[in-house]
Design brief:
about 5% strand, 11 helices, about 65% helix, about 350 residues, four-stranded antiparallel β-sheet, alpha+beta
Length: about 350
Amino acid sequence: MRIAFRDVATAVLIAVALVWVPGTIRAQGRTPTVERPIAFDSAGRVLVLTPTLAVRWKLAAPEWPLGGDWKEARMFSTESGEGVLVVQRVDGAVARYLYGASEFVSLRRVIDAAALAFGSSEGSTRGTTGFELSEPAGNVFVRNQTVLGLVAYGPAMAAILSDNGAAAGGGYLLAAGSAFFVAARTVRNRSVSRAQTILAFHGGTRGGLAGAAIAAIANADGGPGYGAPILGGALGGTIAGFQGARGMSDGEAASSGLGADLGAVTTIGVAGALGAFDDDTSYHKDGMPPRGKAALGGAIAAGLVGYFVGPRYARRSAYNVTAGDVDMVFTSAALGALAMNAAISDGTGRK
């Protein structure tokens, strides 16, 4: 039996059609899901939510499903009127939460109330600062904590173990290395804002200085006497700054540190001008004079108060205060203090 070429070609075409045509029909029959970006609030101002803003506005279940393992969230609407919350997590994954029409109305009502309450509590002159909050800091937090490990945690641990040279070296490496690994793990597991990075580093450095002042007040003797309070102050200041900066903007975090620095430095300066640190053996036998110890204690207290009062500068300003603005304020204050000191020294040195 002979099979013509024409019959073979026809059979091949039929087979191809049976395979290709149904797939094409199915592909053409798929309906795309169209999602359009929308604002979280009724005024259309909040297009992106960050963990800092969520904490500040106290967003919580049942309207808000997220904890602390995300970077940013955006809202989209579907053609059916539903809302889709699209969340970028810290590990790079994207999560989607479907909101029914009534559920999205409830979420928008909560956000509108939070935005209104926030704006009312900060005054009418603040401008748009309330919506310009801190963004994730990324590896800057790791870098800052590594620096703290090298200049604060490590030396303090080495001082604690200074009675044994080998142990002191090992303690330095352990403390400095732990700072890096703990910070890197923290960034991987949660979103760390720039405000938290700023205030954690500031609290760590100033906490270490406060520890040294406490050791001087207590007439500490030897490395362990200084190392323990310095390490405790640096770690405590870092943790307190990290936790306290949740919900702050970059400017508020920097203003908090500015308030602490101005309070402590002003106290020390006034006490020094009044002779608190003059060496007067009639008041003491060894160590720092009692008035000097009182001045250091007052500086620590003034610094703590400054941390709480400082953010008011950024919150009550008529413009959005940035960390750079705060640095300029501190630089100007430092230059003014140096100029005043030079003028006083010149005046007292004349005959």
